[in-house]
Amino acid sequence: MNRSKLTKSLKLFGASGIITAALTIAAVPVMAAATSQLTTAQQQDLQNIINKGNQEITRRLDTLETLSSKISAATKITASDKSYLTTEVSTEATGLTSLKAQLDADTTLSAARTDAQSIFTEYRVYALVVPKVWLIKTADDQQLTESQLTNLAQKIQTKITADQTAGKAVTSLQTELNDMTTQIANALKISSSIETNVLPLQPSDYDNDHTILSGDAAQLNTAHGDNVAAYTDAKNIIASLKTL
């Protein structure tokens, strides 16, 4: 380009255009230089970090896809919980996909290490998301059972009251029904608290306290035992009512 044409071009771009163009042109050589400055061993280390990171990201994306299908197919999760969990899983997948692109573009070991580490610290797919979905699903399942048991207890109470009015001996049956309602209440207290406490948990919560989910599964097992006891009470009462 001759001087007159160059002068016209400079006038056309203006000062800001020249700076922008210059920065754009300079960016590619700088990035290339960052990689080229690495030794052969360092370049291999960089690629190894990227490859390993991609494997971990892909593994998590596959897990999240499976998890999303299970949430969608679940019939006992409440609509609000299903919506919340579906959104959370989708957000995790979107974030990991973006992280993969960022990791693939890294040209320094420090940047690659930081991005690879964030796979574990910022997403917590296996430490939090998977068990969280399982806990919420189980809690919702049990709350449905507790609702059904409550309805059954109410029907049994109606029958016992009628038999008592008719002069039949129902004291022992009333005591057993009282135990049934206590068992249901105990189970509901656990399952509802698990849902309330676990649903909003985020990776940062787990980072601050790795024991944050500790004991939740055991608590749900306790609630399940309470429901079984309540169901056993119901069967015994119904059998006894038939003999009055």
Structure explained in plain terms:
Helix content is 85%, strand content 0%. It contains eight helices and no strands. Helix 3 (79-104) runs antiparallel to helix 4 (109-121) and helix 5 (125-165) runs antiparallel to helix 6. The longest helix is centred in the middle third of the chain and has 41 residues, at 125-165. The N and C termini lie far apart (109 Å).
Based on CA inertia axes, which overall geometry fits?
rod-shaped
Number of strands: 0
Instruction: Please state the CA-atom Rg, rounded to the nearest Å.
Output: 31 Å
Which residue ranges are poorly predicted, with pLDDT under 50 across at least 5 consecutive positions? 1-33
Mean pLDDT across all residues, rounded? 88
Describe the biggest sheet? none
Please indicate the count of domains. Answer: 2
Residues in helix, %: over 70%
- Total of helices: 8
**Beta-strand proportion:** under 5%
Listing every helix as H and every strand as E from the N terminus to the C terminus, the arrangement reads HHHHHHHH
Distance between the termini: 109 Å
Instruction: State the secondary-structure class.
Output: mainly alpha
